[in-house]
Amino acid sequence: MITIKDLHKSYTMGTNSLHVLKGINFSVQEGELVSIMGSSGSGKSTLLNILGMLDEADEGSYTLDGVPIKNLNEKIAAQYRNKFLGFIFQSFNLINYKSALDNVGMPLYYQGMKRKERTEKAMAYLEKVGLANWAHHMPNELSGGQKQRVAIARALASDPKVLLADEPTGALDTKTSYEVMDLIQGINDEGKTILIVTHEDDIAHMTKRIVNLKDGLIIDDTAVDQVRALSHV
Ligand SMILES: Nc1ncnc2c1ncn2[C@@H]1O[C@H](COP(=O)(O)OP(=O)(O)OP(=O)(O)O)[C@@H](O)[C@H]1O
User: Fold this and answer.
1) pLDDT tens, 137-186?
2) Which residues form a coiled coil (predicted)?
3) How many CB atoms lie within 10 A of CB 79?
4) Cα 86 to ligand 1 centre (Å)
5) With a 6 A CB cut-off, is 16 part of the ligand 1 pocket?
6) Domains of the chain, first to last
7) 9 lines ligand 1 (CB under 6 A)
8) For residue 136, what is the DSSP state?
9) Is 216 in the pocket of ligand 1 (CB under 6 A)?
10) How many CB atoms lie within 10 A of CB 173?
11) Which is the closest atom of ligand 1 to the Cα of 43?
């Protein structure tokens, strides 16, 4: 599903250059649930942004579902991004003046789906994350865990090949984090490929594989014995 080879990325600020990714190689097969760990500044978000086609590497190759991602023009890149990728963020990134249902329906709106079909589909995804009864509530009426569930439903709505999550439990308490991870595990059990950036060891151990970054390189890439999230609660 994902293959990256010898990926490099530097940031330049004035005369200083910071070499953040120094030759990353890894691949992710369809259906994997992978966490990317590493200390602050090790390049996790930089890597996730490149995988998410939100940023480009300076060197190296990235192939997503058989498509080489390099030098695509903005329009094509946006089409691939919408087709292949769903995003989940630490701070949920919901639209505050839209209901849970309308937030989930946003990607469908941009696909040009008519209102009736969009509403039915968005409702089905809200049901999937256990929030059908909250469809008409606004984000400020929802708990953190509920907001992240809405964000997950929104990410799923366009049926992406891969879900990319940047610290999805970073703003949640422990119990809620495990509940969100249980939901993510369930989505992965249905076959979705998922990559998660996390600082938290217990969260990483709820994935199936942990990739550890240090100083711009992968220093460890290990399969995890799957632990069901709720067994931690
Ligand atoms: N747009 C940018 N311009 C300049 N430097 C940047 C930029 N984005 C990130 N950096 C620097 O690159 C390094 C890696 O950042 P990155 O956000 O990828 O790390 P991270 O492992 O995700 O860290 P954290 O866990 O703190 O989020 C850091 O030193 C950061 O300051």
Assistant:
1) 999 999 999 999 999 999 999 999 999 999 999 999 999 999 999 999 99
2) none
3) 11
4) 21
5) no
6) 30-60+71-232 (3.40.50.300)
7) no
8) T
9) no
10) 12
11) 18
Segment 90-106 shows an average pLDDT of 97
5, pLDDT greater than 90? yes
Which residue's C-alpha comes closest to atom 11 of ligand 1? 41
**Token digits for 187?**
């989505």
Pairwise CA distance, residues 30 & 203, whole Å: 21
Atom of ligand 1 nearest to the CA of 49: 18
Could you say which DSSP state residue 33 is in? E
What digits encode the pLDDT tens for the residues 54-92? 999 999 999 999 989 987 888 888 888 988 999 999 999
Q: CA dist 97 to 101, 128, 141, Å?
A: 12, 23, 11
User: What separation in Å is there between the alpha carbon of 178 and the centre of ligand 1?
Assistant: 27
**ipTM over 0.85 threshold:** yes
46 C-alpha to ligand 1 centroid (Å): 6
Indicate the pLDDT class of residue 22, thresholds 50, 70 and 90: very high
Tokens of 128: 């999937």
**Which of 35, 37, 45, 50 for a ligand 1 pocket mutation test, highest count of atoms within 8 Å of Cβ?**
45
Question: What is each CA distance from 20 to 2, 72, 136, 146, in whole angstroms?
Answer: 20, 23, 43, 34
d(CA 66, CA 161): 12
Q: Is the CB of 214 under 6 A from ligand 1?
A: no
Does pTM surpass 0.90?
yes
Q: Which atom of ligand 1 is nearest to the CA of 46?
A: 18
